[in-house]
Design goal:
10-stranded mixed β-sheet, 401 residues, Rossmann fold, 13 helices, two-stranded antiparallel sheet, Four Helix Bundle (Hemerythrin (Met), subunit A), alpha/beta
């Protein structure tokens, strides 16, 4: 009897443990659809066992016969909130792009346009001497326009003031508008490359240093694309920052967009990005957006890893856009960041956040000059729809109003 008792107690303990694990396993299976690892084990850049998964908390992802009609169905009516238990997150309808542009322009006009107002006041003076031109130059430099663009603009304004003769405020404003538009360069292509290529989605990487709002920008941009009737899939390749994947998935939930993420802390970012593109191809989405970890531009290893993420993704599909997110208030430091990132990956466009502080609006010109790539998107505020395509004339008009 004494020999049997330990065995019985062991069996009872095992039953209790298994009973406790069953609900957890069921919940995990319901919320995560795992994908078989079909990557090349001999490829040194694609680490096996990344543990990536598609977070289907935006609804359900039903996998059927590959290539068959209706094999991937995404139900996005409500989003279960695991933390809240019974609460649900309703899928929102993002604002149309046209409405965003109007709102952002109004916000720019209401903000403290030191650059535009300062120039208008100086150039409307009864007498413009060298001290006035010195102030014009200082105003432009303080606005982070950069030395070369500042000299170019001052020279152009000097010449036009000589020819203009009598200057009314209306004439000065029109003159400034023309010259600033030239500097910002309306000829740059600011469109996003988000069109499918045959059987493959457009792929977009979002990069930048810590704290500029990359994950938030990816979420807001997903809203822009959904408003344009694009099917989007998000890839949470920021595996270093705690809760980054969950934050991205929440943004996706709000507009009914699935997120590919890892269930392993510190997983290989390149592996997660690879699985995101793979899932995007299988589900025939229009755009795959990959959020990357915030990197300090002076950390060589991290910058090399960013290049690796891009190379691994390109084993499946071409990377159409690499958007660099910059905080407009960082000024020339943001310019230095941009230069380093452009050496690692081919930057195709800039996203400027916190542009509501338009005293630093000249950074638009400085960055475009330094990299030869356009500012494509701007953010003004913390709202979910406070991100819109950059429009040259609207930006200049806002500075001068």
């Amino acid at each position: 009897m004494n020999d049997i008792l330990p065995i019985v107690l062991s069996i009872l303990a095992a039953v209790v443990v298994i009973g406790a694990l069953i609900p957890v396993l069921i919940k995990t299976r319901r919320n995560i659809t795992r994908y078989p690892d079909t990557r090349d084990a001999n490829d040194p850049e694609v680490r096996s066992g990344g543990g990536t998964a598609v977070d289907d908390s935006t609804g359900t992802i039903e996998r059927g016969t590959p290539g068959g009609a209706g094999t991937d169905v995404v139900d996005t009516t409500t989003v279960p909130d695991d933390a809240a238990g019974l609460e649900t997150i309703p899928v929102e309808t993002p604002l149309p792009v046209a409405g965003r542009l109007t709102r952002l322009r109004e916000r720019l006009v209401r903000s403290n346009n030191i650059m535009g107002k300062g120039l208008l006041a100086l150039l409307s003076s009864d007498r413009i001497d060298e001290s006035v031109w010195d102030e014009v130059e200082e105003t432009l430099l303080l606005a982070d326009l950069g030395t070369e663009p500042t000299m170019q603009l001052v020279d152009a304004l000097r010449e036009r003031v000589k020819v203009l003769g009598t200057r009314t405020p209306e004439h000065v404003k029109a003159m400034l508008r023309e010259e600033l538009i030239k500097l910002v360069d309306p000829t740059m292509d600011r469109s996003l490359n988000v069109e499918r290529h045959g059987d493959k989605p457009a792929v977009m990487m979002v990069v930048g240093v810590n704290g500029v709002g990359k994950t938030t920008t990816v979420g807001k941009l997903a809203r822009v694309l959904v408003a344009e009737d694009k099917d989007v899939l998000l890839g949470a390749a920021d595996t270093f920052r705690a809760a980054a994947a969950e934050q991205l998935a929440t943004w996706g939930q709000r507009v009914g967009v699935p997120t590919v993420k890892s269930d392993i802390d510190g997983a290989d970012p390149a592996s997660v990005a690879y699985e995101a593109v793979k899932a995007g191809i299988e589900q025939e989405v229009d755009v795959v957006m990959i959020d990357t970890a915030g990197r300090l531009q002076n950390k060589v290893g991290l910058m090399d890893e960013l290049g690796k993420v891009k190379r691994v993704v390109e084993k499946l599909a071409e990377v159409d856009e690499v958007l660099l997110v910059l905080d407009a208030t960082t000024g020339q430091n943001g310019l230095n960041q941009a230069k380093v990132f452009s050496e690692v990956v081919n930057i195709t466009g800039i996203v400027l956040t916190k542009l509501d502080g338009t005293a630093k609006g000249g950074i638009v010109v400085a960055i475009q000059r330094a990299l030869g790539v356009p500012v494509k998107l701007v953010g003004l505020g913390e709202g979910a729809d406070d991100l819109a395509p950059f429009d040259t004339e609207s930006f200049v008009d806002a500075l001068l109003n």
